[in-house]
# Entry
Amino acid sequence: MSSLAQAPALYLVQSVDWTAVAPPTLAAVVGLVVLVADLFVPEARKPLLGWVSVAGLAAAALLLLPLLDGDRSTFCVSTHACSYTADRFTLVMQFLVLGGALLAALLSVTALKDESKKLPEGEYWFLLLSSAAGAALLPASRDLATLIVALEVASLPAFALVGLRYGDRKSSEAALKFFLSSVTATAVSLMGISFVYASTGTLYLTQVADRIQHVDGQLHTLAQTGVVLTLVGFAFKTAAVPFHFWVPDTYVGAPLPIAAYLSVVGKAVGFSGLILVTVVAFPSYADVWGPALAALAALTMTVGNVGALRQQATRAYSAVRLLAWSSVGQAGYLLVPIAAAAYSDDAEHSIGSTVAYALMYGAVNLGAFAVAALVGRTKAANRITDYRGLYATNPLAALLMAFFLLCLAGLPPGIIGLFAKVTVFSAAVDAGLGWLAVIMAVNVVIALFYYLQWTALLFRAPEGDAVAHRLPAPLTAAITLTGVAGIALSGAPQLVLRFADTGLF
# Structure
């Protein structure tokens, strides 16, 4: 009898826990429904596709609630080797991904109405939902093959979304730059994964962690190289320097809701993968990835903030480009606790700091993009100077934008931003990375300049006649949701850390 026939039934028939996989599955199914429905829905009723997509993402997020009662795993070959696990870390990151995609969808409803001749609605919603499904799958992935598949499912539709505007050269160039750099990074990661597999004989993260620390001496260099190369693809997704060069042009060339989506959901994808491959798969190689990520964190926050300062060399600099450089700087802060996990006795606490910061950043950054979408409806160029006197035309939007910018800067009344930065700073100090904490402190001061300058501009007297900004319902909902989230968390910032308790270990 063959060895396959003698194998336990567990290897031959794998039951599927549909409750565990429901959130990303529903997003994918709704995407397919929207794509097929687009063939039959009359042009005048195309906006219904957007509302179906919004409802689908909201329902996918609600499907996280039944998973709160405990960890669930499926697609397993043994009790310790599963391809999909819905644990606390997974649920928190899926909440961030699906919540971010939902807010981007609300922004998109208005954008598609304004650009109906440039953006095909059916294809747009299908691509957005497909990317969200891949992004929601990635935090639950517990083997290297599923991680890469999820990464590409999240990324490939995003390339198309960036370049989806008909006849827009800037959009096409941004998509091409995004695509070429991402494909190169993915190829490097695949080579790294092949080296890891050759060294360990497995792709499951927990098994890799056990076996990679006992590889033969002659395979040690191969394993070490595999670890480094595997990290490259995920470092690209986080927009870490020097893999950040695609960010400014891509954000400016993409439809604004997609720039918002990439700034939050794209980062959640990258950081989820980075956390899983470092602290779950390669903890024994902390002496390799720890110093590398610490250096990347210092370089990323510095280059991002200096890049944002350089945008102010001209009065006509773009608000979206400034947010793009700001997102690079914020990525540097997010990298700090992951690097600290390599040196800390309490790695779970360090990872929790990154997750908490990501939740804060996601809410307030999407809020800033929502206000940018409002201004962009009357000022197509969306320059910083277009925000002058916003308080005179729309006081609530101006106050919320000021609040979002102060949160990103880490200043009161943006208490949640200050709390998140202190949490990250403490993670670095507790891990003995005092030099990194000092660099972070310097960068926070640098960032204050451009955040406060933008904030002050909102309350200056407008130049010429003030033009009132009309708030469509979807845009109102997006701004309100992010504003309420930011203000509520500023009132009770400890809730973020409790919610971000990852339970990875």
Observations:
- Residues 169-200 form the longest helix (32 residues).
- Confidence is low (pLDDT under 50) at residues 1-13.
- The beta strands are 72-78, 81-86.
- The two ends are 40 Å apart (CA to CA).
